[in-house]
Give the backbone structure.
Amino acid sequence: MSRANLKIPGAVAVTAAALAFSAHGQSIESGHEPFAPFKIGEGLYYVGASDYTSFLIVTKAGLIVIDGGDAPVGHQVLQNIRTLGFDPKNIRILLNTHEHFDHAAGLAEIKRAAAPDVKFYASAADGAIVAAGGHGDPFLKGDRFYYEAVKPDVTVKDGDKVSLGGWTLTAHITGGHTAGCTTWTFPVTVAGKVRQALDLCSASVLPGYKLGKTETYPGQTEDYRKSFAFWRSAPCEVFIASHGSFFNMKAKKAALDAGKADAFVDPAGCRNFVDRSDAHFREELKKQNP
Ligand SMILES: [Zn+2]
């Protein structure tokens, strides 16, 4: 969940206009418009929608998919995988950045279309909420945030590795936006060079989140601090994230189309995003705890 289309449950409705700009000064349009799939690096493809992302990794032992978008996007992800010439029946690993509906609601449909032995990996905190179809989130409550539940097959802890067909992805629990928000890192070859990819969960402080003395969930403020420290220390060359707006997906795709083969290699953009998000977090913390 970014700051778009959010209604604070039981409180003031946040209008689309008020949220036309995210914390990072980028406009966020409807996140689930269909978007043509494309290749980012060797074996790494974008298969998500206009803003809610999904990534496909093609290994010699089957396919890995990270995130399912919201419910309509789940179907688009499957279509995008077919458009690229791959068969969803070969999806053997399903990963998730976090339990919010805009990244987890499409997972059920993707899992149904996947290989019979597909395994869904999620963190303990967020996996429990995906297993309950969005119920149990400390902040987003109401039917519009609930979705078809998917039970994780494997629970990942910080530093756990997930391997398939020569690829290894590492899970980093980067809480704050959600308690079990998971950033995934992995090496990928882009334009002939091995690069470190980082799929950033989310660093957003949603309007209405409580920080400091009173928290949306216990430990949230410290979680954000630890996550920003991790994102600063982690190699982030191929910068990708749960929302396209976080890493300027559309502008980079245009640059890719214009011939810039390493358009998604953007360590400075990654660092900049983390710095801006941290500044917004600290500003919000200060505002709430004068
Ligand atoms: Zn979210």
